[in-house]
Design brief:
The protein contains three helices and no strands. 45% of the residues lie in helices and 0% in strands. It is mostly helical and 100 residues long. Helix 2 crosses helix 3. The longest helix has 26 residues.
Length: 100
């Protein structure tokens, strides 16, 4: 997922990654299909931003990382992401009405 104006399509396709970019407004209005696509992308973007915020709030990588730790940095970030997943759901799931 990238914002409009990022010219990374070629780099992504070389790595086998599909790139999702909101449609550009080239005329007076978006079509219904373009509107639906934009809404879906924006909904997903909100959840991704919330998840990234959770990782940042852990403050595990808040200081300068020594050069000697650079080889482990990817693994450290993965662990931060795993820990952020334990903080609860991003989307509030309404309780089910159980009758006994």
């Amino acid at each position: 997922m990238a914002d409009k104006g990022f010219d990374i399509q070629e780099d992504c396709s070389e790595r086998g990654i599909s790139l999702v970019i909101p449609p550009f407004l080239r005329k007076i209005q978006f079509t219904h299909l373009e509107l639906d696509s934009t809404r879906e992308i924006e909904t997903t973007r909100v959840h991704i931003e919330q998840d990234v915020r959770r990782v940042k709030e852990l403050n595990i990588i808040s200081e300068t990382v020594p050069v000697t730790n650079c080889p482990q940095l990817n693994r450290i970030y993965q662990v931060c992401c795993y820990l952020a997943n334990f903080t609860g759901p991003l989307i509030a799931i309404p309780p089910t009405n159980r009758t006994k």
